[in-house]
Amino acid sequence: MQHKIAITGLRVFAHHGVFDFERQNGQDFYIDAAIWVDGDKAAFTDDLNNTAHYGDLAKGLVELTKNDPVDLLETLAQRLLDYALNFGGGKVLKAKITVHKPGAPIPYEFEDVSITVKAKKQI
Fold first, then answer.
1. Given 2, 87, 102, 123, which residue has the most CB atoms within 10 angstroms?
2. What are the residue boundaries of the structural domains of the chain, listed by start?
């Protein structure tokens, strides 16, 4: 049976964006990540080695977001999706990543800008 492991609202201060001031000043980004694993073995053995460790997943997502700034949210989201799909030593079956940029440089009142990407593991 597939189990969904989700992290919601992972806050990372980073320097992504098209404009120079975004790169210089930085801003908060929020990441929602979901991965699906075959969870039966973990559920029955109660052994962390039989699943994907969400703490390690969070650490990797934070490090990838903090480093190597990019212009587009699409690029960042794809980078994080690729990481999530390959996380856990082959245990991840599919993944979904949403990157939120609530401080996007839009001259109108808004709550959030985000992009979502998802994919299944290629067999």
1. 87
2. 2-120
pLDDT at 39: 83
Class of domain 2-120: alpha beta
The reply to whether 96 belongs to the active site is no
Sheet holding 2-14, edge to edge: 2-14, 27-38, 92-100, 114-120
* Total residue length of the chain: 123
For the full predicted model, state whether its pTM sits above 0.85: yes
User: How far apart, in whole angstroms, are the C-alpha atoms of residue 34 and residue 98?
Assistant: 9
CA of residue 96 relative to chain centroid, distance: 8
For residue 28 the two structure tokens come to 């908060």
Q: Which two tokens stand for residue 73?
A: 């949210």
Catalytically annotated residue among 91, 94, 101, 120: 101
Closest CA to 70 of 116, 19, 115: 19
Query: Treating both helix axes as pointing N-terminal to C-terminal, what angle do 54-66 and 73-85 enclose, rounded to 10 degrees?
Result: 150
Task: Work out the average pLDDT over 106-120.
Answer: 97
- Cα 70 to chain centroid distance, Å, stands at 15
